[in-house]
Amino acid sequence: MSVEASNPVRVPTVKSRARIGTLLSLTLLGLLALMWLALAFSTNSFWTLNNITNLLRQGAMTAILAIGETFVIITAGIDLSVGAVVGFASVIVAWFLTNGFPIWAAVFITLGFGLFIGIFHAFGITRLGLPPFIMTLATLTALRGVGLLITNGATININNDDFTGFSQGDVFGIPNLFWMVLVVAIPAYVFLHHSRFGRYLFAIGSNPEAARLSGVNTRRMIYIAYMLSATCAAFVGILLAARIGTGNATQAEGWELQAIASSVIGGTSLFGAIGSIHGPLLGSFILTTINNGANLLNVNSFWQRIITGGLIIVIVYFDGLRRKKR
Amino acid sequence: MSTESHTNHSPLGDGEENPDAAPILALKKLDKRFGATHALKAVDLEFQAGEIHAIVGENGAGKSTLIKMLTGVHVRSSGEVFWKGKPVDLATPHEAISLGINAVHQEVVLCPHLTVAANLFLGDERERFGLLQHSEMVREAQKIIDDIGFRLPAAALLSELTIGQQQLVATARASTRGTRFLIFDEPTGYLTRQEAAQLFTLIGRLKANGVTIVYISHRLEEVFQLADRVSILRDGQLVSTQRVTDTNEEKLISGMINRSIDQIHYKEKVSFGDEILRTEKLSGKGFQEVSVRVRAGEVIGLYGLIGAGRSEFVQSVFGRFPKTGGQIFWKGKPVQIRKEKDAISLGIALVPESRRDQGLCLNLGVGVNLNLPIYKRLSKGIIINPFAEATAADKQIRDVQIKTYSRDALASSLSGGNQQKIVVGKWLAHGADLYIFDEPTVGVDVGTKAEIYKLFAKLLKSGAGIILISSYLPEVYDICDTLHVFRRGRLVASHVTEKAAPEAILTEAIGV
């Protein structure tokens, strides 16, 4: 009996996810270029070495945070604690430096703290059954408290010129902090798109039950996602401490929202299973450019917040439209 | 509408000839398709005012589709519906409710965190100056419940009640809002004997008030106890409508069974090899003391009504849910299967019941879905070999003939049959000694069905064993070597398939 004849062929007319992603990235890249061009022509100060390196330094930190956050969002989770982890990590690294630890030791210990915070998040989510929103909201407030306890509310000044000098330095004219983005982004890209763990993250975000029944260790993958997010945040905390030369638990207030917004502008779906590394990168530099440009154009800083909020709504709305059209 | 139908001798069977007994609801050539699936085929059916009309049929015969169209959940593909002689759309649930058509579903769709009273008045709350009158509603609700004859506390939270009691609340709600036409879908499934008696009393009273009752149940004794007429559905077609006094249980069962499905089932006899899996008195949530055995080259079928505990049993074998008792033997040796990974590494593959909820990552590509169980094999360390990944995906797409233009196409873009092939196909690349298929042919077209059966034959020849769960009797009957019948969590009978009569199997599953 002929099987082929009995089934009417329905050819799905779907573009691949990759093509959609590329399209979005090109749109975002175009938007970024447009903003840079507009600012270069409308202000005298934008296209100066000083301002561009400043923009790259500031954007670098949001970008690294957003990359870490993206791993979590792809599993359909959320990490609200990253801003608090940045502040906390700046205190930790400053404390160890002022207590005579060498730079490499202080950095590794701080990253270790980040890793541990991620483990704690995943423990709460997978073992205690807390929703990611609640678990990371709890550490968001608690970590700031712990950081303030350590310094007794004070700021730790870092007197290590090698450490603080790093953030001011550059290689081939590009600020060290921006190189750090590549140090994070390239392995992150390989991990997300070319490793089986990356595939598992997407599968869990799409359908955790199907992933489980296919033999994916979903619990381990949740641990990995939150560990990556918190470790990235701790790394940003170290960079921030180097840049401002202090450790203070109240630093980086609201950065978690910057990170989430960057990721979402870059095409990550808060429902999980859709996301990339280059998307959040572009998203973070778009946000940073808006803030930078608004400063240069003497736009009231209150307006910057409103513009950022409006932009998130517009970009995500158009992205949703395009996804629906497929 | 007249309420003369208590007099059991009114000529309900030939209502068209009697102007007094014009049907309250008439379906003319009602037809429903879901993609390739033809769920309901030109059904003509009339419901008289004040009658209790039972509908029986196997799982998948089209009963739920019929209910969903009568309640406005699904819109018909073609045909006409007349309510009191006038054509109606029945396009939305709201329209159905405003006509007076209501249903009590098998699963309770109420708010568990609200009180019984609040659920009864949901959408129709008692207010004074815009404030809810809680105590007044509780008092009124208690009165309504007492009047109906149910024993339920109106002030209790719904979640504190048993499922049976919750169903009575749903019944009370459905029967008190000007309802003229009430559909019950397997209402006694979760009820105790006493609760069922309370329900039957209510049904009798509704009927006395001229309400038309549609009663869907697998329990044939209830059909004969309650109904005036009974209609049989089979494969989406109406087989017959008769007065219950003109028929009996045997006739109903033989009407429900379809004998004319021989054209697509592939059954090649493979000689049995060694035992692969044996369970001894395996118990868990939803099933007790199930003992089965699968040999190489053998298909065992698990037949039963939906909710009989078959899926729970196989999921427990697969490590999804823990067993509470009994023992599993794999190739003769006792084994502990605590998680899915344990089962997979032994060599068990599960194709779950629900493609959408358990089988597929819908918004990921076909290739990723197919490769999900074998990524370890396609990687060096954790880095995927992109060439191996693409080759493996393309090979599966070819082997199981998935119709997709690319391995990158999203799983959601494929038809149901092709989606099912992904769920099956991902285990073929992985390889297994025992394949568990849970309702693999539900909602797939005839061509895909044939391909799935062919695949079974291939697996059996390669020395694997198969556990097939199916609620479609002709399928288990034709495909399986050994047939196990489940009823309410227990294995009630086992047959060598050739020696079992389909009537006997259906009777065992229903428990007449």
Strand content of chain A: under 5%
| The CATH C-level class name of chain A | Mainly Alpha
Question: CATH topology of the largest domain in chain B, what is it called?
Answer: Rossmann fold
Instruction: Report the total helices of chain A.
Output: 13
Number of strands of chain B: 25
CATH topology (fold) name of chain A = ABC transporter involved in vitamin B12 uptake, BtuC
Largest sheet of chain B: 6 strands, mixed
Topology pattern of chain A, helix = H, strand = E: HHHHHEHEEHHHHEHHH
Structural class of chain B: alpha/beta
Number of domains of chain B: 3
Would you tell me the structural class of the helices and strands of chain A? mainly alpha
Strands in their spatial order, largest beta sheet of chain B: 6-9-10-3-11-12
Q: What is the CA-CA span between the terminal residues of chain B?
A: 35 Å
Mean pLDDT of chain A: 86
Q: Going across the major beta sheet of chain A, what is the strand order? A: 1-4
Give the overall pLDDT of chain B as a whole number: 83
Structure description:
The complex is a heterodimer of chains A (326) and B (512). With 326 residues, chain A is mostly helical. Chain A has helices at residues 17-42, 49-74, 82-98, 103-126, 132-151, 161-168, 176-194, 196-206, 208-213, 218-244, 255-265, 278-296, 301-325, and strands at 156-157, 170-171, 174-175, 246-247. The model of chain A is unreliable at 1-15 (pLDDT under 50). Chain B is 32% helix and 26% strand. Chain B is globular and about 70 Å long. With 512 residues, chain B is α/β, with parallel strands linked by helices. At the A-B interface, helix 7, helix 8 and helix 9 of A face helix 10, helix 11, strand 21 and helix 15 of B.
